[in-house]
Amino acid sequence: MNKGLLLLGLGITLLVQSCSSGDKKETKSEELTDNTEITEMQEEPEPLDIVFPSPLQVASIFKRSGLTYIENVTNDPNKVETYDSQMRKSLNFGVYGADLAYCVLNNQTQKSLEYLANVKDLSNDLGISTVFQADELFATFENNMGNEDSLIYVIAGIQERLDDYIQMNEMNHLSTIYFAGGWVEAMHMGSRVLEASDDKKLTQHMLEQTLLLETIVRAFDKSPYKEDPLISELHKQLKEFDTLVNSFEYIKDRPIEEIPLDEIILTNEEVKSLIEMASKLRSTIVNV
Amino acid sequence: MKTLKTKITSISILLFFLSVSFTGVSQSSSCNTVELKTQSKEFLKPDFRYDASKTTYLTFLNKKQFKELEVPLYIGEKYKLVFNTAGVPENVDIEVYTKKYEANGRELLFSSRDSEPTDNCYTFEPTKALRRVYIDYLIPPASGEKSSGCVVMTLGYKIKK
User: Fold this and answer.
1) ipTM of this predicted complex?
2) A288 close contact with B: CB closer than 8 A
3) What is the dihedral of CA A286, A147, A117, A98, to 10 degrees?
4) 68-127 in A: which are within 8 Å (CB) of B?
């Protein structure tokens, strides 16, 4: 009995301590010497320590770059029913989040409500529904229809709560998946506009977005979900996209920090290949 | 009687283990990230909109430590970074660089050593157009017993009409 209780105590202690350290990730022991020189560092950067931009900022930049509203460029809201796996739901959570931001920024309030409902549905399935405080959120949204600034404020609030939830629940790897879904959707929207016009500013912005590819690929390299067939396929395609962009004459062999966007020149073939790649990625995510 | 004494001893040992465990938990959970972020957001007003945030949990050990965050940025956007250090019991140096730690020619853009915090918050607005910045937390050895805390970094982008 005595030994049993002792073992139980030890067990509980170890369990609680392991939960504690897992919940609040401890700093890695990259020691520094007494002077300010850094001598021992981690071998490679961790994807968890990348802070990706919000879908709202991506959508805002796209809008200012000339991304006009096109009917039906967003993902069909009814497709939400067909997304069955956790990874597809996670990716499309990002897709619908980008669609929501796009509609809000283009004063498409009815559409925005549909996408808000989609995002909420997926959040239920993904176990992150508390982020949405559903009843209050929909009422706020409806009360502010037509008021772009207020709706943007609401969307930014959702993002904040999502960030909090992800960090408190150690879901940082999933945030990479959500971001990738939203990023691909934004690239798809940009591609659709580029197909119909030769907008230099939008091309510049599309290219700037592709400079994030290397970072996204690096995050996927370390993802615990990379063995999932869908994530594995997407990972492969993201790498292909990165390779493609790095083969563009304007970008080839130039460090990322030294690529000025205001002088950008892409050949028609390069623009076409960029559009095709964005379309392929998007199709992988939204079409079951 | 002996059995009762044995039980009491065992339960005491169990309670000891539990108290040690939960002391550790309470130290870590002293970091109220939502509250710290709410404070940080005040520094974004009125010109910057919330973009992203990252809470970095730190445990102070008997040695110096280092932690780095990578923050991709967009050229043409103006940003503000707010570092809320109210959740750390020890002084943590914060530095912002143009390149990651092992890169040649990385440039120091900001150091908390050269800045005075307001309500435990340091703010930094990059003036250069950058594709990404790297945030380094330089964590000193614990001055007393092992302790823990967190730094909350909040990123805002300038609102453009």
Assistant:
1) 0.80
2) no
3) 20
4) none
